[in-house]
Design brief:
homodimer, mainly alpha, Arc Repressor Mutant, subunit A, DNA-binding
DNA sequence: GCTTAACGGAGATCCGCTCTCCGGTTACGA
DNA sequence: TCGTAACCGGAGAGCGGATCTCCGTTAAGC
């Protein structure tokens, strides 16, 4: 049987990783995580072969929540309200969890992004098209634009971190206003749906 | 007197730097620039003590253009048309010049940003407030939001690079629609004007 | 042609991150 | 209570990527 301290330290590491990734993003070091947990690096590497392994464990919960957000949004009768709730909840999570933003956005753990992405896309597309059929969303927008909106919120999250934790709500509201009907037609067609996965990976080298 | 080949090589380096910074951003290496110019690293370091020095020379022209854009926009009678032209021209420059975006956004050369920033802010504030007085811009927007909009366009520029060079126009149009009057009030006040310089530095460590 | 400034690029140096190794410590069973 | 296996900690080896130097070679200018 395994020792009590070993079990306890593993938990501490996971908790620490959650906090460190949230605050400093995926660029954080396993050493950082260990130190933040009050443990040595050796201990960290005994429990997890590398950063990827511990990240996988931490990220799964966070990304899974996004899917839940989308499903809960679909349960709301009013299509626009549903979309707004989805955006707000999901954005709120990303505003306080830099690692989550990076993962969804293709700047973090590729495997986890690949795993969760199709499921998010499926739900969001449904949510979006429902809103569009109901006339709550402008005709010339496309589901792909949702991904773009989240990508563009990234800098807003960064500003929130240094200026005012709630600032991102202002810019999300701005984007939502733009998605309403009653605007002149958009000048360029949306990116092809097939490019959806590439959309956010773009900032990569 | 200095040798002709020396003069020629210096020019080649500057041209090369312009191209390399535009394509790969400020993270590019002096070695990269030298190789792209078809010259050796030693040559690069003889002409410029470090990356900062050559960047300063290259960036000045590019940032200066932004100021010109703003002034030209002020010369247009219709306040809204002026603002749109400013956004389109300046965004167009940034879409094709990654180094320029990074500089304006505080992810590149800090000195050059500090140098040009006040002048851009002055012009843009005037441009923006003129539009607002004319009722072309929603009441609850603020000049600071312009900086935020440019920050948020960053991911759109990245997408343009990999998907379609003109794609950023779609998302700029989206943001401009949102700046028009006739929307529900924004939920959070704009960042303080004093935070303007910090706004974009946010993505930094 | 000769002198000498300028060139080129291999490699020294630095830096930050990843991961290992092993002496010291501690939990747990007998 | 004691012995031992399991676990801990953190110094530092290894690695990769960037910056910058050094010096033998090249060619411009007279």
């Amino acid at each position: 049987m395994s020792r009590r301290d070993s079990v306890r330290n593993r938990e501490r590491l996971v908790t620490s990783a959650r906090e460190v990734f949230a605050e400093h993003g995926f660029g954080a070091t396993l050493d950082d995580i260990a130190r933040h947990a009050g443990l040595g690096t050796g201990t960290a590497y005994r429990h997890f072969p590398n950063k990827h392994a511990i990240a996988a464990e931490v990220l799964r919960d966070a990304t899974e929540q996004i899917v839940v957000d989308a499903e809960e949004a679909l349960a709301i009768e009013d299509p626009w309200d549903g979309l707004v709730q989805f955006f707000q909840r999901t954005a709120s999570r990303q505003a306080t969890d830099r690692g989550l933003y990076e993962t969804l956005t293709g700047q973090g753990d590729d495997d986890e992004q690949a795993r969760i992405w199709p499921r998010i896309v499926a739900s969001v597309t449904e949510l979006f098209e429902r809103g569009q059929r109901a006339g709550a969303i402008r005709e010339d927008a496309a589901p792909q634009d949702v991904a773009a909106v989240f990508a563009m919120l990234g800098p807003a999250f960064a500003m929130s971190r240094t200026i005012d934790p709630e600032l991102w709500r202002r810019y999300l509201a701005l984007m939502l206003d733009a998605l309403r009907p009653g605007h002149p037609p958009l000048p360029v067609p949306p990116p092809p749906a097939a490019a959806l996965d590439t959309i956010l990976r773009s900032s990569k080298k």
